[in-house]
Write a structure and sequence with these properties.
Radius of gyration: 19 Å
Strand content: 5-15%
Number of domains: 2
Helix content: 40-55%
Strand order of the largest sheet: 1-2-3-4-5
Distance between the termini: 32 Å
Shape: globular
Order of helices and strands: HEHEHHEHHEHEHHEEH
Structural class: alpha/beta
Number of helices: 10
CATH topology of the largest domain: TIM Barrel
Length: about 200
C-alpha cells in the first residue's frame, strides 16, 4: 500500500507496473479504483503465483481494463504446491493462466528460465510455452532476450502464411477455404490477425 501511495503522488508515473502475489479480483479492483480516483494512467501486469490466485485467475484477468498481461509465477507456485519446477509438474497451472488470459484477450508471459548457462534449455522451454498459448516469456538476464524474441516473434514465413489466409478469406464468400490442400475454417482468422499484430509490437 505504501508503494501505491507513492505512485499516486508521482509527477511522472511509470507506464506499467507488475503486481505480485495477487490472490483475488478484489485486490485488482483496489488498485484500479485508486488509479482511477487519482487519474494515474499506469497500466498493470498481474503475476499469478499462488494457489488462491490460480483458482481465481479467470476473474482476476477480467477485473480491470488497465490490465495488459498475466504472468505465470512458476517459482512461487511450485513452492506453494510443494512440487518441482519442471514443466510437467506445473503444466496444469500454466494452462489455467493461459486460459484466463485468452478469455480476457490479454498477453500471457511464462516464468523465466533460471539457468543462465543453458540457452538451449531456454529455447526448448520457450517453444513449449509458445505451443501452450503463451505470448512471451520472462527474462532474468539480457543474454536471454534474443532467444525469447526469436521464439515468440513470428517468422517471415509465418507472416506470409497469415497474410495469405487473410487475403483468401477476404476474397471468399464462405466460412471455409482450402489452401495448399488444407481445409481452413474462419475462426482461424483470429490467430492469423494475432500473428500480424504481434509483429507490429
Amino acid at each position: 500500500m505504501k508503494d501505491l501511495l507513492v505512485l499516486l503522488k508521482c509527477k511522472k508515473p511509470p507506464a506499467s507496473i507488475m503486481f505480485p502475489k495477487i490472490n483475488n479480483p478484489e485486490e485488482v479492483a483496489l488498485v484500479d479504483d485508486l488509479f482511477e480516483d487519482f487519474e494515474v494512467p499506469t497500466r498493470i501486469q498481474i503475476i499469478i503465483e499462488t494457489n488462491h490466485g490460480l483458482e481465481a485467475a479467470f476473474e482476476i484477468a477480467q477485473r480491470s481494463n488497465r490490465t495488459d498481461a498475466l504472468f505465470f509465477g512458476g517459482v512461487d507456485m511450485a513452492a506453494e504446491l510443494r512440487c518441482s519446477l519442471d514443466w510437467d509438474a506445473l503444466a496444469y497451472g500454466r494452462s489455467r493462466v493461459v486460459h484466463a488470459a485468452a478469455a480476457a484477450e490479454l498477453d500471457v508471459l511464462d516464468v523465466p528460465f533460471l539457468d543462465l548457462s543453458d540457452l538451449k534449455g531456454l529455447k526448448h522451454e520457450a517453444l513449449k510455452a509458445k505451443a501452450l498459448g503463451f505470448t512471451g516469456k520472462g527474462a532474468i538476464h539480457p543474454s536471454q532476450i534474443a532467444i525469447i524474441n526469436q521464439v515468440f516473434m513470428p517468422s517471415k514465413e509465418e507472416l506470409n502464411y497469415a497474410q495469405k489466409i487473410i487475403n483468401e478469406f477476404e476474397r471468399a464468400s464462405t466460412g471455409l477455404i482450402v489452401i495448399d490442400g488444407k481445409l481452413i475454417e474462419k475462426p482461424v482468422l483470429r490467430r492469423m490477425y494475432r500473428i500480424l499484430a504481434s509483429a507490429s509490437k
